[in-house]
Each structure stands twice: as C-alpha cells, then as structure tokens.
Amino acid sequence: MSGFKRRARVLFLAGRYPALAAQALQAGRELGADWLDCRAASMIDQPVPEGLPQPECWAETLLQEVDLLVAVDADVPQLSLPAGVQRRNYSFVVEGLNASPPADRAIALQQSNEKARQRVLGMVGGMRLMQKAAAGEDD
User: Rounded to an integer, what distance in angstroms lies between the CA atom of residue 98 and that of residue 8?
Assistant: First the structure.
C-alpha cells in the first residue's frame, strides 16, 4: 500500500478512441490499485471491445473529482482544468486501430494495451520513488 494519504485520482480521457481509455482503466485497476483510483471517460459514445470496461460519457464535472487527467489520444482538446488538476498527454494510439480486417484491429489493440500497461507501470514507479524520497530511503 502507498504511504500517501490517499490514492491519486486519475481520469483517462479519450477524444476519439474509447477503447484506449478502457485499456488504461483496466491497466490502472490491475497494476496500480494500491496507488491509483482510476476512472475512464470518452468524448464519443462508442462501444469498446468485449472484456473491457465501458468508459463513462465525458462531462466536465468529472474534472472536479480527479488529480490527474491523462489524455490517451491526440483528439482530447485543451480543457480548462480546476486548480490542482494536472494534465498529461500519453497517446496510446497505434497504427491499425481503425483497420477493417478484425485481425489487424486485434493486433493494434494488443499493441495499444501494452502501451497503456507500460505507462501505468511508469506512473506507479514514479509514485514509489516519490514515497521513498519523502521517507529519506536510499535503496
């Protein structure tokens, strides 16, 4: 468990590809549950592949409940963020997400999922380092 007062509240937001926000949400829940309180939202209403959590419909009020907004594709516009909320642009877009052959799209989804998982692991690793530094540990 993290040594912080609470888990960081993260919103993964998709502008064009809801599946990317869903993949990031799933990765956050699986890999960062002790550190991150994750939600996902999409600016377009589109179903995601089976097995992924469906992102919430985007509403500006979601920003009132987060510490960090992560834009998962380049189609998330600049938003007016409440005080204390930071934004990171971590695109998980890979070639083939719009491919019509299902096999090509499946490969693209696997690749984007790996990008999401690596980014979440990086976020958690950064939080662990901050905790160690705050505790004065050298290890």
Answer: 32
Token code pair at residue 71: 């834009």
Helix (H) or strand (E) holding 93: none
Distance CA 85, CA 93 (A): 24
Q: Return the CATH fold of 8-135.
A: Rossmann fold (3.40.50)
Going from N- to C-terminal start, the domains of the chain cover 8-135
Instruction: Report the pLDDT averaged over residues 5-16.
Output: 94
Q: What is the pTM of this model?
A: 0.90
State residue 131's pLDDT score.
86
CA 88, chain centre distance (Å): 10
**H or E element, residue 102:** helix 102-135
